[in-house]
Specification:
The complex is a heterodimer of chains A (187) and B (239). Chain A has 187 residues and is mostly helical. Chain B is mostly helical. Helices cover 82% and strands 0% of the residues of chain B. Chain B contains 12 helices and no strands. Chain B starts with a helix and ends in a 25-residue tail after the last helix. The chains are: A mainly alpha (187), B mainly alpha (239). Chains A and B meet through helix 1 and helix 2 of A and helix 12 of B.
Chain lengths: 187, 239
C-alpha cells in the first residue's frame, strides 16, 4: 500500500472515528476569502504609506535647509524609492515570519501560514510577496483564483504553498504529526 | 351740789390727766426711740437668724415633701391657669421678653441637647416617616419640581463656578479616564468585529456570485478536508 493510500485512509479513518461532532471541539477553521484580504491589504497600505509620508516629509524638511543641487535631489529621491520598496518587503515578510499576520491581518482576524500549519519561513515569505507583486500586475487578476479554489488560495499562495486561515497569529499551530498536506495537493 | 358744779372739771384732775398724757407721750416717744435703737442693734442678728431659719427649712425633707404636694395639688394648677389667663402672658410678650427668652434658648446648649434627644427618639422617626409618606408632602414635592424652583436651582448651579470645578475634577479623575478608555476600546472592538463579520459575509457572497456566473457548484468556503491533517492512527485492518 502506497503512502498516499495510507494517508488517505488515515484521513478517512479520522473522519469516521470522529464522525459524531464533539461539542467541546473548537469550531472548524475557515479559509479567508478575497474581500477580507482586500480590506486587510488596504489597512496595511495605509500604514505603509503613512510611515513613508512621515519619513519622506521629515527628510525633505531637513534637506530643504541645505538647498541641495537638483542632481543630489534626484539621487535622494531614488534612494527614497528604494528604501520604500525595502520597507514594504520588510513589512510583509517580517510580519508573516514573526507573527504570521500583518497589522491589517490582525485587525481582520486571520493569519498566513504554511500548508502544514507552521509559520512561513523567510524564503517562502519572500516568494509569497513576489507572488503578490505578480498577482497585481494584471490588475489583480492573480487573486481571482481565491474565488474558486477549495482552500481559497491565490497565485501567490500556490507559489509559496501557504494558506490563509481565520484566527490569531499569537499562537501558531504546532507542526502536525501527520503527513504534510502539500504532498497531497493535486495542482 | 348743782349740776353746774358737777360739770366743773376738777382742775387737779385735768392737770393730772394732762400730766399723765404728757408722761405717756414722752414715754411713747422714748419707747419708740428705744425701740429704734434696739431694732438697729438687733437687725443684723435677727436677719441672720431669719436666714438661718430659712436655710434650715429649705434643707429639711419635710419642706421638699411639702413643695411636692403643693406643686401636685389642684391649687397649683389653678394658680398657673389663673396666671396664664391673667396679665402674665402680656408681660412676657411685652418689651421683647419673649424674644430674649427665645434668643437665650437658641444660643444656649439646651437647644442642641433638645434637638439630639428629639431626633433620636423613635416617635420623632415615626413622625418624620409618616410625614414623608403623606400625600401632602408628595404634593408639595411635585409642585416644587414642576414649578420654577428647580429651574432656578439649575440656573444658579450652571452659573456657579464650583459646579464646573467639580465637573473638571470628575472628568480628570483616573477612574473616569480608565472607564472612558475601556469604553473606547470596547467600541473599537465592536466596530472591528462588525467589520470582520461583514467581510466574511462579503467573501461568501462574492464567491457565490462568481460561481453562479461561471455556473460552478456553490461552495461556502468550508474546507472539504480539515485545515490540518488529523493525527489519528490508521484504522485496524488497513495494510
Amino acid at each position: 500500500m502506497t503512502d498516499a493510500t495510507i494517508r488517505a485512509a488515515q484521513r478517512a479513518a479520522g473522519v469516521a472515528v470522529t464522525g459524531v461532532a464533539d461539542p467541546l471541539a473548537p469550531p472548524p477553521l475557515r479559509y479567508v476569502g478575497l474581500v477580507t484580504r482586500v480590506v486587510a491589504m488596504v489597512i496595511d497600505a495605509a500604514i505603509l504609506n503613512i510611515v513613508a509620508v512621515i519619513t519622506g516629509v521629515s527628510v525633505s524638511l531637513v534637506l530643504g535647509i541645505f538647498n541641495l543641487p537638483e542632481q543630489t535631489t534626484k539621487v535622494v529621491a531614488a534612494i527614497g524609492g528604494t528604501v520604500f520598496a525595502l520597507w514594504v518587503v520588510v513589512y510583509f515578510v517580517g510580519f508573516w515570519c514573526i507573527n504570521a499576520q500583518t497589522l491589517g491581518d490582525r485587525v481582520m482576524g486571520f493569519r498566513v501560514q504554511q500548508s502544514d500549519g507552521r509559520r512561513l519561513k523567510p524564503r517562502r515569505a519572500v516568494v509569497r510577496f513576489g507572488g503578490m507583486v505578480l498577482c497585481m500586475i494584471p490588475l489583480g487578476a492573480g487573486f481571482l483564483p481565491i474565488l474558486f479554489d477549495d482552500r481559497r488560495r491565490g497565485l501567490h499562495d500556490r507559489l509559496a504553498r501557504s494558506v490563509v486561515l481565520e484566527g490569531s497569529g499569537d499562537r501558531p499551530h504546532e507542526p502536525p504529526h501527520g503527513p504534510d498536506l502539500t504532498v497531497l495537493e493535486h495542482e | 351740789m348743782s349740776r353746774l358744779g358737777l360739770l366743773r372739771p376738777d382742775r387737779a384732775a385735768l392737770s393730772v390727766a394732762g400730766t399723765a398724757a404728757g408722761i405717756v407721750r414722752i414715754t411713747a416717744t422714748e419707747c419708740r426711740e428705744v425701740a429704734l435703737i434696739i431694732a438697729d442693734d438687733l437687725r443684723p442678728h435677727v436677719g441672720r437668724a431669719v436666714l438661718g431659719a430659712v436655710d434650715f427649712l429649705l434643707a429639711a425633707a419635710t419642706t421638699q415633701e411639702a413643695l411636692r404636694r403643693i406643686v401636685a395639688s389642684d391649687i397649683a394648677r389653678e394658680a398657673v391657669a389663673e396666671a396664664v389667663r391673667g396679665p402674665v402672658v402680656e408681660v412676657l410678650l411685652a418689651d421683647g421678653v419673649a424674644e430674649q427668652i427665645a434668643l437665650r434658648v437658641v444660643e444656649g446648649p439646651e437647644l442642641a441637647q433638645i434637638l439630639d434627644v428629639t431626633l433620636a427618639s423613635e416617635s420623632m422617626q415615626r413622625t418624620i416617616a409618616g410625614a414623608l409618606d403623606s400625600p401632602g408632602v408628595e404634593r408639595i414635592v411635585g409642585e416644587a419640581v414642576e414649578g420654577k424652583l428647580i429651574d432656578q436651582v439649575v440656573r444658579a448651579l450652571l452659573q456657579s463656578e464650583e459646579l464646573w470645578v467639580l465637573v473638571t475634577e470628575v472628568a480628570e479623575s483616573p477612574q473616569v479616564t480608565a472607564a472612558l478608555s475601556r469604553q473606547t476600546a470596547g467600541v473599537a472592538d465592536q466596530i472591528t468585529d462588525e467589520v470582520r463579520e461583514r467581510s466574511r459575509d462579503a467573501d461568501d457572497w462574492v464567491e457565490r456570485t462568481a460561481h453562479r456566473m461561471l455556473r460552478r457548484r456553490n461552495r461556502t468556503g468550508q474546507p472539504p478536508r480539515p485545515a490540518l491533517p488529523p493525527s489519528a492512527e490508521p484504522p485496524e485492518g488497513v495494510a
